Amino acid sequence: MEAFCLFSGQSRLRYTGTMSLLEIRNLTKIYQTQEGLFGSAGRELRAVNQVSLDIHAGETLGLVGESGCGKSTLGRMILRLIEPTSGSVQFDGRDVLSASAGEMRRLRRQMQIIFQDPFASLDPRMRVEEIIAEPLLIHENSLNGASRRSRTLEMLQAVGLDEASLRRYAHEFSGGQRQRIGIARALILRPRLIVCDEPVSALDVSVGAQIVNLLRQLQREFGLTYLFISHSMPVVRYLSDRIAVMRAGEILECGPSGQITTSPAHEYTRTLLAATPEPELWS
Ligand SMILES: Nc1ncnc2c1ncn2[C@@H]1O[C@H](COP(=O)(O)OP(=O)(O)OP(=O)(O)O)[C@@H](O)[C@H]1O
Ligand SMILES: [Mg+2]
């Protein structure tokens, strides 16, 4: 923990600077790939290797790197959607990886994820209302129907959709609207940290820009902290306070966005910057 000072004569801590909401230390994931023929040992793939990162309360940390470098594996390990091989994750001072099932349930309320394709794992015959309200049924099952509906409606409006959407089915919506529904579902429990895993990569640039601006607005409105994963340097730069550059399972460098994009320490970061021309929308 950094930047704390003690009130004189009091045992209370006063926060004086940036505080880490999330502390990742030496996080590693080794995948066992399929076994060889005739029982020979399978290969090991070190997808994430000894990664340490802090994410400060209220900031957006951009995580950028080429396809296959381990971004999603890292993002999902934070929420324990993938079990790490080793290392530690602390959320608001609590050890995520040793949390019991009950503790994990409480932690999950505070940490949510937004996917590239928000409905990949959902039934296309679900109505929007059911999709957005489902986390409330699981985590706040004492809520009555009227309260659940008003929370759902409030969130629907926060993401820029109208009330009539509630009764429609997910498959009736465009990609951008689907992402808005995915965001409403992720926010309905009022989490503090959102892992955004390539939320605009499947969208047209202009629709993607609207979603990115919505994420910015929601961050202010709900006091959110983001880990924003993307392979696109311009998008990451537009949204992030700090940027971490990942290559082959490791963080090469991490620093303020301006510094990473104007005077990167690594040749690889320069290559990434050169590889993704800046559309006008992100400049
Ligand atoms: N379940 C798995 N079993 C074995 N290998 C895996 C598994 N999931 C991912 N990998 C491998 O781990 C490496 C990192 O994958 P990961 O999906 O985390 O990368 P990524 O940076 O998110 O890529 P992309 O930009 O394409 O989404 C890749 O080589 C991938 O093939
Ligand atoms: Mg990925």
Notable traits:
283 residues, alpha/beta, Rossmann fold, 6-stranded mixed sheet, 4-stranded antiparallel sheet, 9 helices, 12 strands, 34% helix, disordered N terminus, binds adenosine-5'-triphosphate, binds magnesium ion
Please work out how many helical segments DSSP would assign.
9
Question: Which structural category do the helix and sheet elements fall into?
Answer: alpha/beta
In the sheet with the most strands, the strands line up as 8-9-10-5-11-12
Rg for CA atoms: 20 Å
Strand content: 25-35%
User: Which ranges are low-confidence, i.e. pLDDT below 50, for 5 or more consecutive residues?
Assistant: 1-17
Helix content: 25-40%
CATH architecture classification name of the domain at 19-33 and 42-117 and 193-282: 3-Layer(aba) Sandwich
Quantity of strands, as a count:
12
CATH homologous superfamily classification of the domain at 19-33 and 42-117 and 193-282: P-loop containing nucleotide triphosphate hydrolases
Mean pLDDT: 89
Task: Please outline the major beta sheet.
Answer: 6 strands, mixed
CATH topology of the domain at 19-33 and 42-117 and 193-282: Rossmann fold
- Note the run of SSEs as H and E: EEEEEHEEHEHHHEHEHEEHH
Distance between the termini: 35 Å
The CATH class of the domain at 19-33 and 42-117 and 193-282 is identified as Alpha Beta
Distinct compounds present: adenosine-5'-triphosphate, magnesium ion
Give the overall silhouette: globular
